[in-house]
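Invent a record, attention on tokens:
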Amino acid sequence: MTQITMRESLDLSMEDSEVVRRILAGEIELFEIIMRRYNQRLYRAARAILGDDIEAEQVMQEAYFLAYTHLAQFAGKAKFSTWLTKIAAHEAVARLRRRSRFVDFDSFAESEKGKRMLSTAERTPEQKVLNNELKNLIEAAVENLPELYRSVLVMRDVEGLDTAETAECLDISEETVKTRLHRARALMRKQLYERAGVTQHALFSFERPRCDRVVAEVFKRIYGFPLTV
């Protein structure tokens, strides 16, 4: 069976618009640049909505496949990263609706749900330097936020999207983004979120082996046969 080996080196300096242009011209393999560039963002966005690692990865693969198959429809009216994140957010919300897991804020606030301390996979040397106890506490606190607050918080404070981009990705108004972010931050302060500045960019990291797996699976769907990494 034919196999494709993903390239060891990629020109990651190319602008998104140039990558898209060349993909549409037939250089399909350059779609790997898009995936490598946005795997972390899409994972965090999907996970913030779904609260589940496995489903978030599945949403990423579906979002990339949809983006690839509809790449010619990208009009350039918004940033490519916003367009791509919006696809992932829509897929995550659709999946969430299918399993009926929207959480009412008032009910959640009154519940006795305990904090879940997240297990961590093998870490990079940089991550091992982090204060594991604080990092886990923050991740657990983010995890316990209702989805409508969690998704806004992750996009704004972890991924660094601005208010307009977040609103575009989630199909809500900028005022709603501001309101939800304010409430999310208020809840997080109870979990010592004000101390998160040194660790927030490492939350819910998407490590290289998982990145490779997503890239391989998406290309498998595009080409129709297995890839080797």
Notes: The longest strand covers residues 4-5.
